[in-house]
Design goal:
Elements (H helix, E strand, L loop, with lengths): L5 H78 L7 E3 L4 E5 L5 E3 L13 E3 L12 E2 L5 E2 L17 E3 L16 E6 L9 E5 L9 E9 L13 E7 L15 E2 L8 E9 L6 E3 L1 E5 L2
Parallel strand pairs: 5-6
Antiparallel strand pairs: 1-2, 2-3, 4-8, 7-14, 8-13, 9-12, 9-15, 10-11, 10-13
Amino acid sequence: MDQSNRPQSGNNDISEIQTIQSTRSCVCIRSKFTWIIFTIVVIASITIPTTIILTKKKNVAETNSTTIMMATTGRESIALMLTTTTTGPSTTTTTGPSTTTTTGPPTTTEAGLISLKSTAGVVYGVHDTRISHDSRAAQSGPGIVEYPKEEPPAHACDGDTSTKYLNFAPCLYSENSIQCGLHTGFYLELKGNASLVTRLQICTADDFPARDPLTVSLEGSNHSGSNLTLGSSWTLIYNGSSGLEDDPGRRTCGIIQLINNSIQYTSYRFLVSSKRSSESSVQYSELKLFEY
């Protein structure tokens, strides 16, 4: 046998062994790498869903907590609204003619309303009195040209629709006629300063719509005392509808009537020249005069 070939055989064996070792090393590395990836996937498959579930639970808990807080806040707000009180006299402000109402006896101030408080507190009733003519005094009593003592002309100026002024003249209180109560009324001198009347309003009394005035007049004067009995002392500023053509109901004010007037007066005379229908008298609870 040729001795020169032996070394080559040994080299080949060594080369094969190295190749096998290298292959085994690669397989081992690949196996380890595979296990690492597998482990990561397993951990991820457990960790990620768990994290998502916990996060959702946390969000739900936070939402429920917020809802509870909102509901609690709402109840507290309602409780505060129900338990809040105000001490002292209550005052309510509203728009429209009525502006201020306070507790106690009912008192109402209307925009532009003129106070009809008279000098010395006297309101003079009249009968058989026409526009621009002298006034004829009406007396308290049950007979002709009279008005009841408990229903005087001052009741038409007291701001209270539960009281009234009633006048029978020229009839007896037992008569019923379309003429009963016509050409009656009253006059007064204002206790305050002169006023510029631009509107008037009549309020009905408590009974019998037939007694409601339908046509009325208003005269103004800057005279005083006994001069106010003279027709020449008065200037006509309104003659027309009372605003009660359509019955508004009992103790209720009618439609406000506009007055074309530019002069201030200290005294006023109010007369009724027609009423709704036949009855024993004319009656009304209030005459209201306004400045604007």
